[in-house]
Amino acid sequence: MIRTPVIPTEIIVHLGAPDEAARNISVPFVEYIKNVATGEIYPNWPIDAIKANVLAQISFALNRIYNEWYPSKGYDFDITSSPVYDQSFVENRQFFEKISHVVDDLFNNYIVKDEQVQPFFAMYCDGKNVTCDGLSQWGTVTLANQGMGPLEILKNYYGDIKLIYNAPLSNNIRTYPGFVVRLGMAGDFVRMLNIQLNRIGQNYPAIPIITNNTPYFTVETEQAVKKFQEIFDLDVNGVVDKATWYKIKYVYNAVKNIADLYSEGISIDESTLLFKEQLEVGDEGQYIITLNYLLNVIAYFDSSIPFLRLSGEVFNNDTKQVVMAFQSKYNLPVTGIVDKITWRDLKEAYRQTLRNIPREYLRALNEFYPGRFLSLGMTGDDISNLQNFLYIICEKTKSIPGVVVNGIFDNLTKQSVLSIQKRYNLEENGVVGPATWYKIVELSKEV
Fold first, then answer.
1. 44: exposed, middle or buried (C-beta count within 10 Å: 0-12, 13-18, 19+)?
2. Which run of H or of E encompasses 28?
3. What is the pTM of this model?
4. Which residues, given as ranges, of the chain have pLDDT below 70?
5. Which residues sit opposite 14 in a β-bridge?
6. Contact (CB, 8 A) for 393 and 420
7. DSSP code of 232?
C-alpha cells in the first residue's frame, strides 16, 4: 500500500506571512482553492486556461500540505495567505461563479512528475508583473487561444507531468504519531523515520546508515537519531519527540528539494506502507497475532472485557467483540475496528496491565511480552529473560543454535530467534515481537 496524497477536507491557513502575528483559520480545501483562483485569475479567460491554472494551484497547495512544509518548520498551520510565500488568499472573498464551477470539477485532481508520489511543486507567476521558471498565468491564455488543452498547457511549462484523478478525500492527518518514538517500537512511522534518516545521511555522512529500512526502531536507529540530534543542536537522547520528528522532516524536505520544480521527489518505495492503517474483521497476518496477544492479556486481568482466548492470525468476530469492549472501557468510538488511536491506547493499556499485575502472578511476570520489539544490539533484563527461555529450548533441542545469557541481544541470540521463526512459520526477521515471544515462552514450557 502506498502513502498517496489525499485531498484534505479542511486546511489551516495563516492570514499573513509565516512569522507575522496573524490569525489561523480552518478552511475547507475546496473553498481555499476557489478563494485563491478568484484572486489570481479572471473568469473571462478561456476555460482551458482557467483549468490549467486551477490544477497548478491545487498541486502547489497539496505539495505544501503533503510534505508538512510549515509544520516541519515549527509552525501550527498548513499554508499562508501571502502570495510572496504561497498563494493569494483573502478571508471572506467572494468567488467568481465560473471559476467556482471549475474548482468543483477539479479540486480532487493534481499534478505529479515522473514516478514521484508527492504533488508536483507547480510554481507559477502572473507572467506580466512577475516572471519565473514555472507557469505564466497570462501565458496560459495565449496557449489556450492557440487551441491547447489544460494538460498540454501544463506540459508546456512543466515538462513530462501527468494528472492524478479523483484522489480520495480525508481529514488532514499529520505524520507525527502523537507519542515519543523510541527504541523497541515498530510500525510504518518507524520505517518512515529510518528512510528519512538514511537519505539525510547522504548529505550528512556523520549520521550512521541504518542497514535495513525496516519498521523497527533498532539500536542502529537510535544511534542515527543521536547523531542527528547532535548535528542539529537538539537534546541528544536517541528518542524522537515532536521537535526531533519535525526537524528530521524539515531536513529531509531540504535535501530532497521538495519545494522545487526540479525536486528529487519522493519515490514509491519511500512512501510504501507495510501495514494497514486499520485492522478489522477478515484481516490476517502477523499483526493480528500481536493484536490477539495484547487483547488476551488485558482481558485476562480486566473482568469488564470478555476473555475469549483469541488465537491465530485471523481477525474474527470474537476479536471484534473484545475490541468493542475495550473501546467502550476506554471511551473510544465503539467500532470494532482497530485504528491508530485504538492501537495506541491498546499498547498503553497492556503496559499498565503489566505494571499493576496481581501479586500472585508476579513470579510469572517475565513470561509476559515486555511491550517492546527486541532486536540486535539491545541490552537489559528483557534480553536476559529472552535468553533464559532460549537457553532452555536450546538445551533440549539441539537443532536450535545455543545462546549465552549475557543480557545483550548479540548475533548468537539473533540466530537462535531466526531458527525458531523459520521452524514455526513466523516472520523471519530476527526481531522478537509478541508472536515470536509467545512461541518462545511456550516452547520453553513444553521442554
1. exposed
2. strand 24-28
3. 0.87
4. 1-3, 273-274, 447
5. 24, 80
6. yes
7. T
